[in-house]
Amino acid sequence: MSTPAGQRSRKDLACTAEATAYQKAFGAELKRRVVENGEPFVVAQADTPHEIFHVMDIALISNQWWSAYISAKQLSARYFDAMVAKGYPDNSCKYCSLGLACTLANDPASAPWGGLPKPVALVARLTCDCIQQVFMQWATALDTEFFAMEAPAWTHKDPAWFAHSNRDWENVYEPDRISLMVEEMRELIALLERKTGRRFEQAKLEALMLKINEQEGYIAEAARMIGEARPCPVSIADQMPNTMIPQWHRGSDWAVAHARKFRDEVTDRVARGIGVASNEKLRLMWIGAGVWHDPGFYQALEERLGAVFVWSMYMPFAGPQYIRELQGRTMDALASRICSMNEVLHLPPWMNGWMVSEAERCGIDAAVMLIPPDNRLSQSGTQLTAQSLEDAGVPVLRLGADMVDAKSWDHAAMVALVENFLREAKLL
Fold this sequence. Notes:
55% of the residues lie in helices and 9% in strands. Strand 7, helix 17 and strand 8 form a beta-alpha-beta unit. A 4-stranded parallel β-sheet has the order 2-1-3-4, with helices on both faces. Strands 6-5-7-8 form a 4-stranded parallel β-sheet, sandwiched between helices. By secondary structure, the chain is α/β, with parallel strands linked by helices.
């Protein structure tokens, strides 16, 4: 396929522009702190306890955010080529290895911020062998420490676990798994205190967790309204930034206020009967990370076919599935969040039952599932989830493409692929 530049997306909500502007200013401030001022910082996977870094006021660069940032600048192909030229395999997981590829390319002229300086640590859960190897290699390249967190198997088999995970989290996510995560978080805190001289305060964590619950409550309300409303009031192009940008800053005054503002804007659009498509015909479900190099892909389907992505996994996870009743056990409640994140999003039997339930809730006609060819974690459970959806009467298009590598992506061809799938399913 040819690889034209990705298409820009249209944003309809006022709060989307505000979130984007905030994140841009945050990026500039983060660069000032870690590049210009040399403040201590960490690089961490999204499924690690960011709350600890926030409480300790340690600058954080999320690997997924950094990868999306590089991809949006259309630099991923250059860096992956450089990575392969240095002897690394060309089938590495693109999403988790793009940051490493940027470091290995060692091209300050093209790299965002001129490339990353040395962090105090790289932090990742061992959710797959690729993550472990990438972070070990990256730590070596940056001459720093890799702090690995275990990801033990989750044996709980309650098919309706998601209905009571907010309050009954100890039973749902299992005491032994939670205890292990608490122990590792305390080890991480000790490492950070030793390397940065900053102190962790339990009271600050409890206050942060309460504010996060408030924030996620607003996102949960918005997710419920979007799923129930006919027509769909908010496009995926507005859903994603208004969920993910506050999530990177969860528990901050800005994030709580912005989530409330987003909820209120969704409420207003529902009340006025506003739909994102001029003629909504189909309600679609998007499973997987966003196509960060072509955000206009989703809206092309809205405009061309009246096919609206009502659901993506970010909002219903950040909202209903991230809230925890603290029950006087703040560290344990946080641990229950962290030890389940990738499992809920990627692995059966938790992913498939939850997503089938969500498809029923939102009146989904069909699902599009992103399956990155070289992403082991995303591949591991998606086929079983696709089968569960199909068994429930929801046709599924398995889209073999990558969220940050645009080499095999063609905007027009991908839009046509979805259209042909919907026609073959006799939905158009």
